[in-house]
Amino acid sequence: GAVVSQHPSWVICKSGTSVKIECRSLDFQATTMFWYRQFPKQSLMLMATSNEGSKATYEQGVEKDKFLINHASLTLSTLTVTSAHPEDSSFYICSAPPGQGWTEAFFGQGTRLTVV
Amino acid sequence: GIQVEQSPPDLILQEGANSTLRCNFSDSVNNLQWFHQNPWGQLINLFYIPSGTKQNGRLSATTVATERYSLLYISSSQTTDSGVYFCADSGNTGKLIFGQGTTLQVKP
């Protein structure tokens, strides 16, 4: 299956700063990646679809200016949480969707963000 | 988009017991998957099962696509089976949508 590598696995940042999370496809080329957010004891909620070479598409209610997504190459998608606040503390996880040579979705290890 | 309903939300078992987790879907299933989320948050792929039955060791899954539901069976549960189990499907959108999860606790 596909190998998706996410970095960092955890990060603590001060309120008002920005944090970048990287999602790499190690053994395939990803034209599309999905970003999810998971609050404690809740399910994974889709935030946005990252499209290589074009703008990301965001789910309803997700602030595109706060969660900047860049997909500049076929192996790297990044999510930048800008001007982070404590309420942005969450678990962020990226996914390679099915259809890019396999039938199932594969996920990165996730990034636990804590904003203090 | 597709709606995913999972049950039960919580389950406590004694080691060695069997269990069944269920997912209902509001629309036709296309890419149904079952995952186990470990304590570190990583999602472990258990099954890709848009239809039919599959087995992997003590775990098996059945999807009845015509009735829009799927079942995950855990037999002879072990403490290492503890965690959160999610089902998810993309429906016709290509975007994987998750159920609310079942939190399983297996006691020794």
List the helices and strands and how they pair.
The complex is a heterodimer of chains A (116) and B (108).
Chain A: E1 4-7, E2 10-13, E3 19-25, E4 32-38, E5 44-51, E6 57-58, E7 67-73, E8 76-81, E9 90-96, E10 106-107, E11 111-115
Parallel strand pairs in A: 2-11
Antiparallel strand pairs in A: 1-3, 3-8, 4-5, 4-9, 5-6, 7-8, 9-10, 9-11
Chain B: E1 4-7, E2 10-14, E3 19-25, E4 33-37, E5 43-48, E6 52-56, E7 59-64, E8 69-74, E9 83-89, E10 97-98, E11 102-107
Parallel strand pairs in B: 2-11
Antiparallel strand pairs in B: 1-3, 3-8, 4-5, 4-9, 6-7, 7-8, 9-10, 9-11
**Element-level helix/strand string of chain A:** EEEEEEEEEEE
Helical content band of chain A: under 10%
Largest sheet of chain B: 6 strands, mixed
The overall pLDDT average of chain B reads 94
**Most extensive interface, chain pair and sizes:** A-B, 25 and 21 residues
Overall outline of chain B: globular
DSSP strand (E) fraction of chain A? over 45%
Largest sheet of chain A: 7 strands, mixed
Mean pLDDT score of chain A: 92
Structural class of chain B: mainly beta
Mass-distribution shape of chain A? globular
The percent range for helix content of chain B is: under 10%
Order of helices and strands of chain B: EEEEEEEEEEE
Question: What would you call the quaternary organization?
Answer: heterodimer
List low-pLDDT spans of chain A: none
- DSSP strand tally of chain A: 11
- Class from helix and strand fractions of chain A: mainly beta
